[in-house]
């Protein structure tokens, strides 16, 4: 099996001058990108580290950071991606948890707070375009001559990359994936999105986030062009300007970015200059039906792919665009190479339509396990079930209709009880989002001495709209059972996001 990074080298040999990567307006050709990856690999090999050592990359998304990620894999080390915005305590915990041999940071990074708290042998500071002579090495004296790169040194089934899930300091999990996992994801996704060779893909997710990593890397593997912005622009109209500026053919974005895009003035969606855009693909969270319909109205020529995936299994399902009008609430069927089942609490397969159960998946996309968490790995990865050698229990609740289309219900651990009745926050959110004045909504459980828990609705209104809490409660009461009606409604200017750009419901409180 071809190493992940070798695809880029192949394009560098055959189309060296083709633009490969654009980050915040700066560009690299395939030849330049591969040259920088080689430079990074050479410098890392010169430290004397061995194949399989963990290299932590702690830097904002940039041309150099992306090339460095390829260089780590090229040299045969395990790439560990860390968000540059995490706090010191979390960084220390993650570095020690993975036993990182080397930490790579931007030039000038202050690491005083790490002194004596991490067991890292080498700290490498990236210089601009990091030719080996421009790197500054801390806690390391002398660089030995390197005669050759050890391309493909890692076995395709061994740990190649570790992604950290979002979570508190102690709860964040290192998801270990292999070269085989990553290439299986690429093959599966490109089988329905099509070849990336002529694509220009726009992404706003950071490199450390698995969704951002694949959004950046997949066009590069396919010989296309990857365009990345480090954050959403100040105004939604600027997203449309990026499409015009770079001739964007595809946007791979999270639902909050879709919501942001839809805030643009209606006139901004007009004009021939947006005709380059072929499709919008969204994953990470369920795409609200309301936003799907708004996208269809604003950009009728653009195909919309509603998808579902997890860090532990890059992509599980997608809904073909031609099914969108008929099944707007569905995330589709399993992608090629993934098998999916619904099971009840007794681990029995559910075959009846529309019955809710936990989603269990199998296939080459499923992770190797959680780094340094054997008990948790054993709990979610189980052997010899449902005719599969190994399956992953996602913890997500779904239902499946009579034609095998999947519908996300909610997280297994998010469903709560109100006076013995099961409350699913997502059902309430869908009703609230159907109100003409509502832009975004998240429902969270609040502790209650009598009822156990009650639902609180956290709502963002559309610009220029007004709505009272009482009016929204009445709207919900007309469509939901009494125990599903929010007990409290709070209005927000904006909902909080986590480091990956997803809505951070855990940051919303009773206040």
UniProtKB/TrEMBL annotation:
User: What residue stretches are annotated with the AMP-dependent synthetase/ligase domain?
Assistant: 9-371
The residue range of the signal peptide is none
Q: List UniProt keywords, sorted A-Z.
A: Ligase
Q: Which residues form a coiled coil?
A: none
Give all residue intervals belonging to the AMP-binding enzyme C-terminal domain. Answer: 427-502
Pfam families per the UniProt record, alphabetical: AMP-binding (PF00501), AMP-binding_C (PF13193)
Q: Which domain of life is it from?
A: Bacteria
> GO MF annotations for this entry?
acid-thiol ligase activity
Can you say what this protein is called?
Answer: Long-chain-fatty-acid--CoA ligase
Q: Species name for this entry?
A: Pseudomonas batumici
């Amino acid at each position: 099996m071809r190493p992940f990074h070798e695809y880029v080298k192949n394009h560098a040999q055959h189309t060296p001058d083709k633009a490969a990567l654009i980050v915040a307006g700066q560009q690299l050709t395939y030849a330049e990108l591969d040259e920088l990856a080689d430079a990074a690999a050479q410098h890392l090999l010169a430290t004397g580290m061995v194949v399989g050592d963990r290299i932590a990359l702690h830097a904002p998304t940039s041309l150099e950071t992306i090339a460095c990620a390829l260089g780590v894999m090229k040299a045969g080390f395990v790439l560990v991606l860390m968000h540059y915005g995490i706090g010191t305590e979390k960084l220390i915990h993650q570095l020690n948890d993975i036993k990182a041999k080397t930490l790579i940071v931007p030039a000038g990074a202050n690491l005083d707070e790490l002194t004596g708290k991490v067991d890292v042998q080498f700290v490498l500071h990236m210089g601009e375009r990091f030719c080996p002579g421009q790197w500054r090495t801390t806690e390391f004296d002398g660089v030995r001559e390197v005669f050759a790169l050890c391309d493909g040194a890692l076995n395709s089934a061994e740990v190649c990359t570790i992604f950290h899930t979002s979570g508190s300091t102690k709860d964040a999990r290192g998801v270990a994936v292999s070269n085989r996992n990553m290439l299986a994801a690429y093959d599966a996704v490109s089988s329905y999105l099509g070849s990336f060779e002529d694509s220009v893909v726009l992404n706003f997710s950071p490199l450390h986030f698995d969704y951002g990593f694949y959004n950046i890397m997949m066009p590069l593997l396919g010989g296309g062009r990857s365009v990345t912005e480090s954050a959403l622009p100040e105004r939604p109209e600027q997203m449309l300007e990026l499409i015009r500026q770079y001739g964007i053919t595809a946007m791979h974005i999270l639902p909050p970015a879709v919501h942001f895009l839809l805030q643009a003035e209606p006139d901004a969606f007009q004009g021939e200059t947006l005709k380059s855009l072929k499709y919008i693909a969204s994953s990470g969270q369920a795409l609200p039906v309301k936003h799907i319909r708004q996208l269809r109205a604003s950009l009728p020529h653009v195909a919309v792919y509603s998808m579902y995936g997890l860090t532990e299994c890059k992509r599980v399902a997608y809904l073909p665009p031609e099914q969108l009008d008929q099944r707007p609430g569905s995330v589709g069927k399993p992608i090629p190479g993934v098998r999916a089942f619904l099971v009840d609490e007794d681990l029995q397969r559910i075959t009846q339509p529309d019955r809710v159960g936990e989603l269990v998946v199998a296939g080459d996309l499923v992770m190797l396990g959680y780094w340094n968490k054997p008990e948790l790995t054993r709990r979610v990865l189980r052997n010899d079930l449902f005719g599969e050698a190994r399956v992953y229990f996602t913890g997500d609740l779904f239902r499946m209709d009579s034609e095998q289309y999947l519908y996300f219900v909610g997280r297994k651990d998010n469903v709560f009880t109100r006076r013995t009745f099961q409350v699913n926050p997502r059902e309430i959110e869908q009703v609230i989002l159907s109100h003409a004045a509502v832009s975004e909504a998240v429902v969270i459980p609040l502790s209650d001495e009598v009822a156990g828990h009650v639902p609180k609705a956290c709502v963002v209104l559309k610009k220029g709209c007004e709505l009272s809490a009482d009016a929204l409660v009445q709207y919900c009461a007309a469509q939901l059972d009494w125990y599903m009606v929010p007990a409290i409604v709070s209005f927000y200017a904006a909902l909080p996001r986590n480091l990956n750009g997803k809505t951070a419901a855990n940051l919303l409180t009773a206040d």
